[in-house]
Amino acid sequence: MQTWQTVLLLLVLWAYLCSHGDGLRALKRTTGGRRGVALTLTGQDANGVPLRRSKRGWMWNQFFLLEEYTGLDNQYVGKLHSDGDRGDGSIRYVLTGDGAGTLFIIDENSGDIHATKRLDREEKAYYTLRAKAVNRITNTSLEGESEFIIKIHDINDNEPKFTKDPYFTHVPEMSPLGTVVMQVTATDADDATYGNSARVVYSILQGQPYFSVDPNTGVIKTALPNMDRETKENYVVVIQAKDMAGQMGGLSGTTTVSITLSDVNDNPPRFPKSLYEFKAPESSEPGSTVAVLRATDADIGRNAEMNYRITSSDGPAMFDISTNRSTQEGVITLRKPLDFERKRSYTLRIQVENSNPDPRFLRYAATTDEATVKLIVEDVDEPPVFDRVSYVMEVKEDSAVGTIVGSVSATDPDSSRSPVRYSIDRRTDMDRVFNVHPGNGSVFMLRTLDREENPWHNISVIATEFNNPRLISRIPVDIRVLDVNDNAPTFATYYETFVCENAKANQRIQTVSAKDADEPIGGHRFFFSLAHEVSGKANFTVRDNKDNTAGILTRRNSYSRLQRSTYLVPVVISDGDFPMQSSTNTLTVRVCTCDREGNMQLCNQEALVLTAGLSTGALMAIIICVLILLLIVVLFAVLRRQQRKKEPLIISKEDVRDNVVSYNDEGGGEEDTQAFDIGTLRNPEAIEETKQRRDIKPETLNPPIRRTVVLPPAYRDNSDVREFINQRLQDNDQDPTAPPYDSLATYAYEGSGSVAESLSSLGSVTTEGDQDYNYLSEWGPRFRKLADMYGGEDSDGYRDS
């Protein structure tokens, strides 16, 4: 292989030299140590006279060197020779520049140049060097320094490499033949200007017959039309790039291209079934879901979105259908309530279609599909239904108890037609003013009504199925109380005025108005007049103003405050309704001294108080309130004083058995060390056996005296009891943890030979003789009850047992 490449290189170099002019034909390169000739250039001047110029005496040109040399010796590059070299060794050749002395060396005697290392054109394509010939003895330059180039010839030592590996791309499904998928690119590091080492040709190794690749450009195209994603979605294509124009012996590289067919809307939605059947209870609320159905679409994503609609139904405006965008399901909902008794099933025709149809595929297949939905209504035991949404009733306020106000009606909507029972929701009628007949629903009065107290009554009537009391219905019933003329008109407010002593006759001193709790349809009309019994001797007159007011006028020219200071004028007020109602109201008139303009100057004390705006009743109410507050304060103070009194600790001095006396006394803290040793408490194990107790009276001044216990005469002969008590006393005296010396220690030890002997009745059953219990009376008051029970004898000689 190396010989073949060398021959080829020489042929290319020969063709290059032959293509140049005459001056270049005079150049002769020597290899293998051959001697060259001088380069001579010829030409003519402007007159056509030949000119002759001798080039300097270098006999060399540009050098060429093959890359990737694999020989064992240094690779020969060329030879430098000067015309002044006589072969006597007087000339020395010097080489400088790129790689001189390292990559390239020169024989300073012969001028031969060799490469010392293996060169790679892809790393550096050429080297620029400079050469000169110098006198070996004088080291002077014989020739001017000249520059030459060593060019590295390329060989096919690099395979093509793709810019990416692997490639990922996609192409729409159903694409026509020849649709461009993508372009792949491979590069070759070899010299593209020299031979075919860098000329890359593309081919497909895997992926036929679906795809093809352009051999020159690397463009991948579809090789089959209308590839369907739903049939096969992913393809793996292997592309090869080969240099040397694809000829045998060229180097190659491969890459993988993953191609995915992207979805297009080429499939319409389809129902899996043509008939669907659903059931829904008749108690379903409007807006609730009664059926859910789903069509399938082979497409994905946005192309699988669909819309549902109702094309026909035997229940107009009964149902709605919508699309659940997350699941693409058709959801059928109610618009109106279902009624099993009226209609037991419904039939709907549902159509589904693509939301985003592709016009390119509309001609291939139907874009919609239809299915039938049958909805069966299930019977549910429903509560009674009233014939109205609400009831409004009216009743006069003077109606008698038991009067029927109105009636309600409810029926069982189920086919069983269960009887209905009526009742009043007492939470809406706390005063029990009304009631309802349980059978026919008649609402009647239990109490008399007063419109002025409550003009409206809002109650609720409950209807319950007789066969199923849990099913109930409620309905509001509003009862309006109609007005009747049962109230007499009265003064609109309390009236009190004064009259001057120098008043003139027919002088108006007060204008009064009236009020009435009734509300007649035509409005109020009041009539005012002076009471008939005083009209003949009246000091004042009443004039009806015909506008529901009246004026109070003087009847004489003067009044005397000294003769009479107060007048009560009775005014009769009547209404215009039927039956007519009237009342007599009193106007209080005070006689006062006035100036000429009629301004009051002096009245009695009562008039002044009343003029200030406080009546006698108001003053009495204020006084009563003050007294009540004072009484409450006194009672509170008495209760607090009683609570502060403390009960005595001991009520009876004789009986102290059940009394507990508490002393709120506290020790002296850590400074009080008379009752205990703080060191012993901190270290109980360090107690000295000979250490005296701290809870008894100190005996440092007096020697310890052994205390003896003096027993009663009855116990002196009981040696066992005496030894027991002495032993316990000695133990307490030597115990440093014993309670204080003034504590009482009780021991439950009776001893043998007790004077009282045994009180048990178990031993008495073995004794047939009589026993004498009179000695119990000698034991003191505590045994008195026992002595009374056993010491006395019955009249017949038998003792109580």
TrEMBL record:
Q: Which GO terms describe its cellular component?
A: adherens junction; catenin complex
Q: Which Gene Ontology terms cover its molecular function? A: beta-catenin binding; cadherin binding; calcium ion binding
Q: Where is the signal peptide?
A: 1-21
Q: Which PROSITE patterns match?
A: CADHERIN_1, CADHERIN_2
Q: Where are the transmembrane segments?
A: 618-639
Query: Which GO biological process categories is it annotated with?
Result: adherens junction organization; calcium-dependent cell-cell adhesion via plasma membrane cell adhesion molecules; cell migration; cell morphogenesis; cell-cell adhesion mediated by cadherin; cell-cell junction assembly; homophilic cell adhesion via plasma membrane adhesion molecules; morphogenesis of an epithelium
Which keywords describe this protein according to UniProt?
A: Calcium, Cell adhesion, Cell membrane, Cleavage on pair of basic residues, Glycoprotein, Membrane, Metal-binding, Repeat, Signal, Transmembrane, Transmembrane helix
Q: State where it is primarily located.
A: membrane
- State where the protein is found: Cell membrane
Cross-referenced Pfam families: CADH_Y-type_LIR, Cadherin
- Enumerate the Gene3D superfamilies for this protein: Cadherins, TCF3-CBD (Catenin binding domain)
Q: Could you tell me which residue ranges the Cadherin domain spans?
A: 82-162, 163-271, 272-386, 387-491, 491-602
Entry's SMART domains?
CA
What is the role of the protein in this entry?
A: Cadherins are calcium-dependent cell adhesion proteins. They preferentially interact with themselves in a homophilic manner in connecting cells; cadherins may thus contribute to the sorting of heterogeneous cell types.
- Give the PANTHER family listed for this entry: CADHERIN 6 (PTHR24027:SF428), CADHERIN-23 (PTHR24027)
Record protein name field:
Cadherin-10
Q: Which organism is it from?
A: Oncorhynchus kisutch (Coho salmon)
